[in-house]
Specification:
Elements lengths: L2 H9 L3 E3 L3 E10 L4 E9 H16 L10 H11 L9 E5 L7 H4 L11 E7 L4 E6 L17 E6 L1 E3 L5 E3 L9 H4 L7 E5 L4
Parallel strand pairs: 3-10
Antiparallel strand pairs: 1-2, 2-3, 2-4, 5-6, 5-7, 8-9
Helix pairs in contact: 2-3
Length: about 200
């Protein structure tokens, strides 16, 4: 295993995922100097085993896809629908400023409405920021001049209304333009690595 991966694994608290095992959030610098501020290191062997299991399930008729070509759909999912980085292309790894600590993520809970969770971060200085995500919270956008240590409170199922007040998303339909106005998850890359559980 690349020593830069070992350093991240020793430093970063992983997210435990039932399907993929331990996921280590970090930033990567590639050998050509490209910087990726959001990346996840995960187990190459668990990823391969998951793909093999899903293919077997579908081939035996015990899968969950009702598509004309379930085998092709599974292969497509594992081969072409993720932002993958080869482990041998990585020069260095570092902590990502966009990876919220697990202690903060654990305070964000519940589905606000179908396939969406909305919340507000109240910062230590009193500033309020609306957030929302379809359950992809490995990395989150940050307002200028803040980091996750500045979050004083998580207010679930809420947003900051046009008057700057915290309003509930559970009291009726989301306001027009709400989803486009919130801070969201950040796109990240995945690097499958040998030696991760």
């Amino acid at each position: 295993m690349n020593t830069c991966f070992e350093e991240i694994i020793a430093k970063v608290e992983p997210i435990a995922d039932r399907s993929y095992g331990l996921k280590y959030r970090c930033a990567l610098t590639l050998k050509d100097g490209t910087f990726l501020p959001c990346a996840v290191l995960l187990s190459k062997s668990r990823l391969v085993e998951l793909a093999k299991r899903r293919i077997k399930e579908e081939m035996r008729g015990k899968g969950s896809l009702s598509a004309p070509d379930p085998y092709g759909r599974i292969v497509s999912t594992f081969v072409s629908s993720a932002n993958n980085i080869a482990d041998y292309s990585v020069r260095s790894a570092s902590e990502s400023k966009y990876a919220p600590p697990l202690s903060l993520l654990s305070q964000i809970h519940g589905e606000t409405f179908m396939a969406w969770t909305g919340w507000v971060f109240r910062m230590k200085d009193g500033a309020l920021f609306s957030y929302g995500s379809p359950f992809n919270m490995e990395f989150l956008q940050l307002p200028e001049e803040y980091d996750f240590k500045d979050v004083a409170e998580v207010i679930n199922h809420s947003y900051v209304d046009k008057n700057g007040l915290v309003s509930s998303l559970r009291s009726g339909p989301a306001p027009v333009g709400y989803v486009d106005s919130v801070l969201r998850e950040r796109i990240f890359f995945t690097c499958a690595v040998d030696g991760i559980i």
